[in-house]
Amino acid sequence: NTHYRIPQGFGNLLEGLTREILREQPDNIPAFAAAYFESLLEKREKTNFDPAEWGSKVEDRFYNNHAFEEQGPPEKSDPKQEESQIPGKEEEASVTILDSSEEDKEKEEVAAVKIQAAFRGHVAREEVKKMKTDSLQNEEKEE
Q1: First CA to last CA across the chain, in angstroms?
Q2: Is 20 exposed, middle or buried (0-12, 13-18, 19+ CB in 10 A)?
Q3: pTM of the model
Q4: 89 pLDDT higher than 60
């Protein structure tokens, strides 16, 4: 038995790929994997946020809590360095969360409009049905 060490962050990348393969269930898995990793590279280049690096730091923090010790308390660290590193990553994460919540809100609004329209249609049909029965009863009384 030989034990190999995998690079930090590689496990996270494979977990993400596996999750997407299970979600999408593509016919051609190698081509899907190539496209998946290519899209990850494009996202990393555009946003300067590497999910593999972030995942490895989170994993390292979970197991031995050494990855985040370099930041230190806000009073002692350089404010320019702190501003340039931390808010960018937080903004990217919050933008992703906001985008997904905006998409969810739009879907909810569309669903609400459909439900309201269906209910109004139901109420209108009931009123028409009631008006028809009332008019039929009035005609029977007149005869």
Answers
A1: 99
A2: middle
A3: 0.39
A4: no
